UniProtKB/TrEMBL annotation:
The keyword Translocase does not apply. This is DNA 3'-5' helicase. It comes from the Bacteria. Residues 604-641 are annotated as: Disordered. PANTHER family: ATP-DEPENDENT DNA HELICASE UVRD2, UVRD / RECB / PCRA DNA HELICASE FAMILY MEMBER. Coiled coil: none annotated. Belongs to the helicase family. UvrD subfamily. It comes from Protofrankia coriariae. The keyword Lipoprotein does not apply.
Length: 750
């Protein structure tokens, strides 16, 4: 039995074609726009697919139709995407549609396969070893460059080298490009360029390649060796690219090498979900596709099968308000193609298509309206969220269908504490991979041993066999243990494996332990993980591509979303797209909330995110008080449109309106400061210690001006801290907890 996926109107039908079949059955269950995708002739096709509109269904049915109708041989199609999980889903759907000969891989997996084949014939030697992580080599290079970065700095430096390579920059080109892109770095660009050079040298000496080299070398051998290009292009004649808005210059170069002068390519993407520009991803390739291929068929998928009309309506209103709350009141977009905001994205699409920007059209029945709630403090917001989750569980919503989404990972702690206190199981996405968890790895090892065993005295049936094997791990069926600690998580992980065995038997009643072990091995390779019962805590960036019945968008305060270091219009609009991604993760229930202070009893100085202006109803509840009261000093109703977009920022000494740097400082230049001198001295002593640890000048940690601002503001939350000049995301991640501890009178943990 084939199960419908959440972004599709109906499940994929099983393969029912055959020799001479027309493939018409592959279009009969599609909506009109999806049919346009499937029936577009061989050649350039651009699919602009909104969230939840069944894009995977459309492109897999297109491939299946081309193969089944005999237009395209399955072995000549290469479909590429960005994650092993997405590639696995493509392969699974294509098998269902009878097109299992199609290659569906990530960019890196396709490049590794091709380079591994051609490299020995080019170099006369095996392909060098591939390193999965750059960090160790970057550390070695840092020592050569006479740098002593902390572990966090090492991670940030590695990410910066990855950005440079993804955008096809040499070390010599990096400083100017980093300055032009406004990169916030831990070290001066010239120092990072020197480290980049040392990294490349260390890599050559070790005789290894990184994942960026893999793409670059594959493109280079195709470009430089005609026989390689001819052989590859005769093998792959038709290309499909999923999530095309996330492609970076390096990936596009490889795609161009594969394609050559041909035009049989279908790309699918959503410019409103471009949220990874900081890694080098750019929507310009998606937007420029109709210019590059003037004969391209452009199709818009707008029927949303995922979310209720209430959720879809909020998503549409959020996108429609682009430009009304730009960076520091300056709406618009950037002229740099790779840094376009949503306004620039939509404008470019309109310039090509001459149509109005598409609005999602909900296909599901009505559901509850999204809620907007303001709280006095983060602990109150987290506790209220936990209570609402508990109520949802009591009404029958599975824990695995509930998610709490936040902007930065540091926000998860309050929710972990509150949810655990309520006895609710939860998982934090971004931890170790499912199949690498100790109990899962041990369980799989025992299953393999049982499959190899000659023992015939076993229970009858796959599920019974699996249950018996897991008994050796102390696992028992029935109800899970109480609480949400390690014991509960271990139980849930093993229960997820049992459910996989049950699903395998449902699909194939004759499935054996050997079949199950093979299925688990395939899932581990492609990170096709099972559903584990527990509320998901996940950042907005990591939530893309996922969806739940109920979603809580928390911490929606100015300075956190948009994050304070989003200064340009393009950066602010990317933050808006991040919220759009969060909203469109919800199928039925959506709750949006924010807190005015970090600690209970703390100063209520935060404001709700500018993105909520005009979206939240004027009757939204505030801090648990009856609806209709003012939710924030100076705000006439939660989310009500402020004059000129925002309430005026006033000097805390003389109350005069402030603009520019004075607004960020919260005080006129001429007004007296109120610096906590003892705190300032503690901050200076801490800064000196950190600078010694890093073998760097003190100003690299924080300037005196920033320390004085901290001592004057005495921030008690992340949102307040990032509002201080000189504190961006990098320094927030590295020093934020230390600074907040010092302000609170505690010793820093690090």
């Amino acid at each position: 039995m084939v199960r419908a996926t959440v972004d599709d109107p109906v499940p994929d039908a099983p393969f029912q074609g055959g020799a001479g079949a027309s493939g018409q059955w592959l279009v009969e269950t599609l909506d009109p726009e999806q049919r346009q995708v499937v029936l577009a002739p061989v050649g350039p096709v651009c699919v602009l697919a909104g969230a939840g509109t069944g894009k995977t269904r459309a492109i897999t049915h297109r491939i299946g139709h081309l193969v089944e109708s005999g237009v395209v041989p399955s072995g000549q199609v290469l479909a590429v995407t960005f994650t092993t999980r997405a590639a696995g889903e493509l392969r699974g759907r294509l098998r269902t549609l009878g097109a299992d000969g199609v290659q569906a891989r990530t960019f890196h997996a396709a490049a590794l396969r091709q380079l591994g084949y051609f490299w020995p014939r080019i170099a006369g030697a095996a392909l060098p070893r591939l390193v999965e992580s750059k960090i160790a080599l970057v550390g070695r290079a840092a020592s050569r460059a006479r740098l002593a970065p902390s572990r966090t700095e090492l991670r940030d430096l590695t990410a910066e080298i990855e950005w440079a390579k993804a955008t096809l920059l040499t070390p010599e080109q990096y400083p100017a490009a980093a300055a032009a892109a406004g990169r916030e770095t831990t070290h001066p660009p010239e120092v990072i360029a020197r480290l980049y050079t040392a990294y490349e040298q260390a890599k050559r000496e070790a005789g290894v390649l990184d994942f960026d080299d893999l793409l670059l070398l594959t493109a280079a051998v195709i470009e430089e060796h005609g026989w390689v290009a001819e052989e590859l292009r005769s093998r792959y004649r038709h290309f499909v690219v999923d999530e095309y808005q996330d492609v970076n210059p390096l990936q596009q170069r490889l795609l161009d090498a594969w394609l050559g002068e041909r035009d049989s390519i279908c790309v699918v993407g959503d410019a409103n979900q471009t949220i990874y520009s900081f890694t080098g991803a750019s929507p310009r390739y998606l937007l420029d596709f109709p210019r590059r291929f003037p004969e391209a068929h452009v199709v818009r998928l707008v029927r949303d099968y995922r979310s209720t009309p209430q959720v879809v309506g909020l998503a549409n209103r959020l996108v429609a308000r682009v430009g009304t709350a730009g960076a520091r009141g300056t709406p618009g977009g950037s002229s740099e193609p790779g840094a376009q905001g949503t306004h620039g994205v939509v404008g470019a699409a309109l310039a090509v298509s001459r149509h109005e920007p598409p609005r999602l059209v909900a296909q599901r029945p009505d559901g509850p309206a999204p809620t907007f709630t303001e709280f006095d403090s983060e602990p109150e917001e987290a506790a209220a969220t936990a209570r609402r989750i508990h109520a949802l569980l009591g009404s029958g919503v599975p824990a695995s269908e509930i998610a709490v989404l936040y902007r930065v990972n540091a926000q998860s702690e309050a929710y972990e504490t509150a949810i655990a206190a309520a006895g609710i199981p939860y998982l934090v996405r971004g931890g170790e991979r499912f199949f690498e968890r100790p109990e899962v790895a041990e369980a799989v090892q025992l299953l393999r041993a049982a499959a190899r065993s000659a023992d015939t005295d076993r229970p009858v049936g796959l599920v019974a066999e699996v249950t018996e094997v897991f008994a050796a791990l102390g696992w028992r069926g029935g109800d899970p243990p109480n609480g949400s600690g390690a014991q509960r998580e271990r139980w849930e992980n093993l229960a997820a494996l049992v459910r996989l065995a049950e699903a395998l038997v449902a699909a194939d009643p004759g499935a054996t332990l050997d079949h199950f072990v093979a299925d688990l091995a395939d899932r581990a390779v492609h990170q096709h993980i099972p559903t584990v019962e527990g509320v998901m805590l996940v950042s907005l960036h990591a939530a893309k591509g996922l969806e739940w019945d109920a979603v809580f968008l928390v911490g929606l305060a100015e300075g956190t979303l948009p994050i304070i270091h989003a200064q340009t219009p393009a950066q602010v609009e990317e933050e808006r797209r991040l919220l759009y991604v969060g909203v469109t993760r919800a199928r039925e229930r959506l709750a949006l909330s924010w807190a005015l202070a970090r600690h209970e009893g703390g100063r209520r100085s935060r404001r709700p995110s500018r993105f909520l202006d005009g979206l939240a109803p004027r009757s939204a509840s505030s801090a648990g008080r009856p609806a209709g009261g003012p939710a924030h000093p100076g705000v006439d109703g939660v989310g009500a449109q402020r004059s000129r977009g925002r309430a005026a920022v006033r000097c805390r000494v003389c109350e005069r309106p402030l603009v520019g740097q004075a607004a960020r400082a919260g005080r006129c230049d001429g007004c007296p400061a109120n610096i906590d001198q003892a705190l300032f001295e503690r901050l200076r002593a801490w800064r000196s210690a950190r600078a010694r640890e890093q073998s760097a000048p003190a100003f690299v940690v924080f300037t005196d001006a920033t320390l004085m601002a901290i001592a004057e503001h005495r921030p008690t939350s992340v949102a307040e801290l990032v509002g201080i000049p000189g504190i961006g995301q990098t320094k927030l991640d590295r020093y934020g907890e230390d600074v907040l501890a010092l302000v609170d009178g505690r010793e820093p943990s690090g």
